[in-house]
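$ ./design --mode recover --in tokens.txt
reading tokens...
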């Protein structure tokens, strides 16, 4: 994966996050937000895609992840902290009217941004294998592996991280890819992962935030996802009435990796259409 152009961004609460960018520095902006225990490296298949490199692609390691700061106080992983972090990245890099794409927990981070800031500064949204509305019945059986975790035992931490990671796929990645993924998964301490797991939002509040969305929205999910059931995306698409729902056969939680060619083509088309429409609306060139 190319290293990209590096930035360090300070959130309002003092947490510093690691941000990278790829693609055309003058292009319209796609912001990719990774899931829990993941990394900006999760999107290797997107940042190396020729068509997507026509855009300016931004991703970062959320707080507690990768090369970003890792405070252990659970107060740093409550809802408003996440939306403030997104806003800080958008402001620091002067990202005008981006499309926000959130995978897994990243979709909840995007949802939190919508709750606190709305979609007025955005061109579009992509919800990728996530549950913006935290209905308990959309939690898949693949999450049960965490019940076997023993925090005081390093082999247990590694074993559960590996088992959870395997549940991110219908078809497991090649051994070298899996090793890299497990390495950056382990950079997020389990204490932080468990703190993030306690972050929940009332479903009525989340639903109301989605119902207010007016920008173009793409909702993507794998039909074989065992971490977040496809029903979650159906809920999102129902609440964002104009959203496009795209379900992928034979894919688990990581559609963007497992079906990279098809997903990248769909994402490129969505971005092109969205930015063209946004340009006409704003009275600027698309």
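writing sequence...
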């Amino acid at each position: 994966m190319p290293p990209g152009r590096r930035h360090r961004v300070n959130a309002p609460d003092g947490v510093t996050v690691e941000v990278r960018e790829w693609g055309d520095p003058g292009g319209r902006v796609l912001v990719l937000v990774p899931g829990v225990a993941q990394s900006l490296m999760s999107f290797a298949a997107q940042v190396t895609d020729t068509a997507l490199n026509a855009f300016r692609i931004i991703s970062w390691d959320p707080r507690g992840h990768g090369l970003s700061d890792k405070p252990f106080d659970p107060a740093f992983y409550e809802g408003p902290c996440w939306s403030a972090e997104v806003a800080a990245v958008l402001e620091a890099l002067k990202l005008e009217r981006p499309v926000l794409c959130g995978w897994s927990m990243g979709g909840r981070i995007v949802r939190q941004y919508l709750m606190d800031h709305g979609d007025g500064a955005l061109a579009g949204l992509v919800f990728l294998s996530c549950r913006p509305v935290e209905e308990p019945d959309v939690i898949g059986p693949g999450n049960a592996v965490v019940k076997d975790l023993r925090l005081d035992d390093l082999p247990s931490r590694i074993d559960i991280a590996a088992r959870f990671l395997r549940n991110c796929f219908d078809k497991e990645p090649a051994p070298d890819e899996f090793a890299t993924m497990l390495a950056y998964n382990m950079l997020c301490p389990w204490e932080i992962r468990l703190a993030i797991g306690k972050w929940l939002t009332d479903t009525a509040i989340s639903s109301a935030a989605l119902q207010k969305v007016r920008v173009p929205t793409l909702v993507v999910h794998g039909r074989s996802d065992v971490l977040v059931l496809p029903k979650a995306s159906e809920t999102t698409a129902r609440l964002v009435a104009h959203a496009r729902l795209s379900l992928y056969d034979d894919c688990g939680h990581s559609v963007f990796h497992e079906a990279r060619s098809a997903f990248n083509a769909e994402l490129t088309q969505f971005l092109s259409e969205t930015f063209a429409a946004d340009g006409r609306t704003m009275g600027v060139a698309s």
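exit 0
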